[in-house]
């Protein structure tokens, strides 16, 4: 069914006069008459009937008008939305590991909104572990994620945008708690609260200890940095974690690591093989230019 013909029909239904409707649509009256005839032939019913000099809808015409206006309204709203997004408006869907939600990502988003004050831009924020976020990125649930380095086998584009200091935390009263710094070797004689395999930190901490050719004794495992810190405060063991301001509020001793063998980098990750909306693309460029 010809979309232009439907628009001609709606205009004629409202104006109820062929000459005036044709003038409003910038077409000739014969072109309008042809369009209506084609619609009536396709539908198999009469849409209009004469009433003096005017043209009125039949019962079928009134029914079709309601359908046509709903359809055109939906279509026009969709076109308007797409055009706004093409101009830089829309929603940016972010995934992030929880520690970056304390300050880093909110600051980036807030600063970007200030620069885009004349745009209708908004964000959604979703937290999770690195593994979960990368799986969801592959499923196109997010435009980009902020997390640990993704495995190369996933084929994502990843750019480092910051780093965190790694520290050892020990519960109050622990033999290491009277120190200010330790080496990794110093920690091997004690049980560790460890990152589970779903966390991006797991491979990083494993790499640190593999450099020593030794592995720590694991008391328990979990995915979230904050949960590890809580378990350490409760006396389950010591842990290697990224530094977080929340550690100041817990009953733990924060120890710097001497001769730290690796850096804890975090990345902005997106799938360059899939289409990213203009508004998300602009924010991604902003993130890269800000670091």
Automatic annotation (TrEMBL):
PROSITE patterns: HTH_LYSR (PS50931). Signal peptide: none annotated. Transmembrane segments: none annotated. InterPro entries: LysR_HTH_N, LysR_subst-bd, WH-like_DNA-bd_sf, WH_DNA-bd_sf. SUPFAM superfamilies: Periplasmic binding protein-like II (SSF53850), Winged helix' DNA-binding domain (SSF46785). Keywords: DNA-binding, Transcription, Transcription regulation. GO terms for molecular function: DNA binding; DNA-binding transcription factor activity. Residues 1-58 form the HTH lysR-type domain. GO terms for cellular component: protein-DNA complex. Belongs to the LysR transcriptional regulatory family. This is LysR family transcriptional regulator. It comes from Coprococcus eutactus. The lineage of its organism: Bacteria, Bacillati, Bacillota, Clostridia, Lachnospirales.
């Amino acid at each position: 069914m010809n979309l232009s013909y439907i628009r001609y029909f709606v205009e004629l239904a409202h104006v109820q006069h062929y000459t005036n409707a044709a003038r409003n649509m910038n077409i000739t009256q014969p072109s309008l008459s042809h369009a209506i005839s084609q619609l009536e032939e396709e539908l198999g019913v009469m849409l209009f009937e004469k009433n003096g000099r005017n043209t009125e809808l039949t019962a079928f015409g009134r029914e079709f008008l309601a359908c046509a206006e709903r359809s055109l309204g939906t279509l026009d709203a969709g076109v308007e939305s797409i055009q706004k997004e093409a101009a830089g408006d829309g929603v940016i869907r972010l995934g992030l590991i929880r520690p970056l939600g304390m300050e880093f990502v909110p600051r980036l988003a807030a600063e970007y909104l200030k620069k885009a004050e004349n745009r209708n831009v908004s964000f959604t924020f979703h937290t999770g572990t690195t593994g979960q976020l990368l799986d969801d990125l592959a499923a196109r649930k997010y435009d980009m994620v902020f997390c640990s380095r993704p495995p190369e086998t996933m084929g994502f584009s990843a750019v480092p945008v910051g780093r965190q200091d790694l520290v050892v935390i020990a519960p109050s009263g622990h033999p290491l708690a009277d120190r200010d710094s330790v080496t990794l070797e110093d920690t091997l004689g004690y049980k560790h609260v460890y990152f589970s395999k779903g966390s991006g930190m797991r491979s990083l901490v494993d790499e640190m200890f593999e450099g020593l050719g030794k592995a720590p004794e694991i008391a328990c495992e979990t995915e979230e940095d904050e949960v590890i810190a809580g378990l350490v405060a409760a006396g389950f063991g010591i842990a290697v974690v990224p530094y977080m301001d929340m550690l100041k509020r817990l009953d733990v001793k924060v120890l710097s690591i001497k001769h730290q063998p690796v850096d804890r980098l975090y990345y902005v990750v997106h799938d360059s093989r899939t289409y990213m909306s203009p508004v998300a693309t602009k924010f991604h460029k902003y993130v890269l230019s800000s670091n």
